[in-house]
Design brief:
Helix content: 40-55%
Strand content: 5-15%
Structural class: alpha+beta
Largest sheet: 5 strands, antiparallel
Distance between the termini: 54 Å
Number of strands: 13
Radius of gyration: 23 Å
C-alpha cells in the first residue's frame, strides 16, 4: 500500500480537504443524475461506490477523528449502504501508512533518538495502519514487540474536525445543534482520550490485569518505560485477525469457545468494573496460535456512571416490559422520551423503543444464545431501516437517548456483530443473574 509522506495538520488544510471532497461527491451526483435522464432504472450502486471511494481516500489522508468516525460507521449496517461499509471497514486495520521519515521524526520528538537507536531491529514499513496510529514490529533483547505510533497532528485536529462535521450531521440527521452538542462532546472526549497514549497504557495494564482470570483470553505485556505520549510499546501478539482466522474453517466448538471468552470479557467489564473496552471491531482482536483471543487495543474505554448503569441494564431484564413496571419513568430517565413530546409522540416513541428493547435484549433472555442465527440479525437490520425512515424520528426536535448510551450501544452492537461473524453460541447470563436476584 502506498505510504503517506505528510498529513494535513492545520485547520485550513483540513477544512480545504473536507471542502474538496464535498466537491467530488457533488460531481458524482451530477454525473449520476445526468445518466439517469437517459436510464430511469439506473441504480445508486455506482454512485455509492464512487462516493465511498472518494470519501475514504480523503479521510484516510486526513486520518484522526475523521477516519475514526468512518470506522465507527462501518460497524453499523443500518447507517450506510454496503459500498460505504466495505470501504470504511478498511479504516479498522488497513489505512495508508505513514512513511518512515515521519516515524523517525515522531521518535526524535519524544525520545531524542530514532527507532534504530532504541531497538535491536525495527521494521521501516508499518505492519498495520488504522485511524489514529500505525504499528511497527521491533525486537529488543530477544523480545518481539509491537510499537504503536500516533499520526502527527491527530490530537490537535480532533476538536476542529468535529466542528466542521457537526453542522453537516445536524442537517443530515435533523437534530437540533443543542441536542447534537451532547453527543459530539461525548465523541470528542473519547477521541481525545484515544490520542492520550499515557492514559491508554495505564488503562491497558489495569483492565488486562482485572480480566486476566477469564478463560481463553490473552493480553500482551506493556512497557511504559519504552513508551511516550504518542508511542506505545507492548509484546507482539502472534496470530490472525478474525477474517483470516475464519478462512481456516475453525470447528464450531472453537468458534463457541472464542465467542464465550469474548462475551465473558465484556460481561465482566460492564457489570463488575463499570468501565468497558468500547471499540469492539475485529481489528482490535487477534486469534493466537494457541487458539486464545488476544486483546490488543484499549484506546477507547467508556467509564459507566452508576445511575445510567442501573437504568440501562434494567432494560435487559426479562420482565421489564411486563405489567407493574414503571417503564415510562425509565424511558424519561434514559431520555428515550422527553417532557417536550406531545402525547401522541410519547405513545409512538414508547412503542418503538419497547419493540427495540425486546429485540435487542433477546440474547439476555435465555441461558444461551446462538449469534450465528442470521434471521435474528436480519430482524435487527429491518427494524433499524424501518425506524430510520419514520418521519417522526427524522423530524424529531430532540436527540433520543442518553449521551452515555452512545458508546454502550456501540459496544453491544460491535460485540453482537463479531459473535455473528464467529457464528458462536454462548452462555449469556453471567452477571445478569446477579442483577435479577
Amino acid at each position: 500500500m502506498k505510504e503517506q509522506s505528510k498529513i494535513p495538520t492545520s485547520k485550513v488544510q483540513r477544512a480545504t480537504k473536507f471542502i474538496s471532497t464535498g466537491a467530488k461527491v457533488g460531481g458524482n451526483y451530477i454525473r449520476h443524475y445526468s445518466k439517469k435522464l437517459f436510464d430511469a432504472d439506473l441504480s445508486k450502486d455506482e454512485l455509492d461506490k464512487s462516493n465511498a471511494e472518494d470519501i475514504y481516500e480523503s479521510l484516510s489522508q486526513l486520518k484522526g477523528s475523521a477516519l475514526k468516525v468512518a470506522q465507527m460507521l462501518s460497524m453499523d449496517k443500518n447507517v450506510l449502504p454496503s459500498a460505504y461499509q466495505e470501504k470504511f471497514t478498511m479504516a479498522q486495520y488497513s489505512a495508508p501508512p505513514l512513511s518512515y521519515p515521519l516515524v523517525v521524526k515522531t521518535f526524535k520528538k519524544y525520545f531524542e533518538k530514532s527507532p534504530a537507536d532504541i531497538f535491536d531491529t525495527f521494521t521501516k514499513n508499518a505492519i498495520n495502519a488504522a485511524s489514529i496510529g500505525q504499528v511497527h514490529q521491533a525486537t529488543l533483547e530477544g523480545k518481539k514487540l509491537a510499537v504503536k505510533i500516533q499520526y502527527p497532528g491527530v490530537a490537535d485536529s480532533v476538536s476542529a474536525d468535529l466542528k466542521i462535521v457537526k453542522p453537516m450531521a445536524s442537517t443530515l440527521f435533523k437534530i437540533s445543534p443543542k441536542d447534537l452538542d451532547r453527543f459530539v462532546a461525548e465523541v470528542e472526549g473519547k477521541l481525545l482520550e484515544e490520542t492520550d497514549y499515557n492514559l491508554e497504557i495505564e488503562r491497558s495494564i489495569m483492565l488486562s490485569g482485572a480480566c486476566s482470570h477469564i478463560p481463553g483470553l490473552h493480553f500482551p505485556k506493556y512497557y511504559p518505560e519504552l513508551s511516550a505520549e504518542r508511542v506505545i510499546v507492548m509484546d507482539w501478539v502472534e496470530g490472525s485477525h478474525l477474517k483470516d482466522f475464519l478462512k481456516t474453517g475453525p470447528s464450531q466448538a472453537l468458534r463457541n469457545r472464542l465467542g464465550q471468552s469474548l462475551w465473558d470479557f465484556y460481561d465482566h467489564q460492564m457489570h463488575v468494573l463499570k468501565q468497558v473496552h468500547a471499540d469492539p471491531h475485529p481489528g482490535n482482536f487477534i486469534i493466537t496460535k494457541e487458539e486464545q483471543l488476544g486483546i490488543i487495543d484499549f484506546g477507547c474505554v467508556k467509564v459507566i456512571p452508576e445511575d445510567f448503569y442501573n437504568d440501562y441494564f434494567k432494560l435487559m431484564r426479562r420482565d421489564i416490559l411486563g405489567e407493574g413496571q414503571d417503564i415510562e419513568k425509565l424511558f424519561y430517565d434514559l431520555e428515550f422520551i422527553t417532557r417536550n413530546d406531545s402525547e401522541a409522540e410519547k405513545v409512538l416513541f414508547m412503542e418503538v423503543f419497547k419493540e427495540m428493547i425486546d429485540l435487542l435484549g433477546k440474547p439476555f433472555h435465555s441461558e444461551s444464545f446462538d449469534f450465528g442465527d442470521d434471521t435474528y440479525f436480519n430482524k435487527i437490520y429491518a427494524m433499524g431501516d424501518r425506524i430510520s425512515n419514520m418521519k417522526e424520528f427524522r423530524n424529531s426536535k430532540s436527540a433520543r437517548g442518553s449521551q452515555h448510551g452512545l458508546y454502550i450501544n456501540r459496544t453491544y452492537f460491535g460485540l453482537y456483530n463479531i459473535l455473528n461473524e464467529l457464528k458462536a453460541e454462548v452462555n449469556t447470563q453471567g452477571h445478569l443473574q446477579i442483577m435479577e436476584a
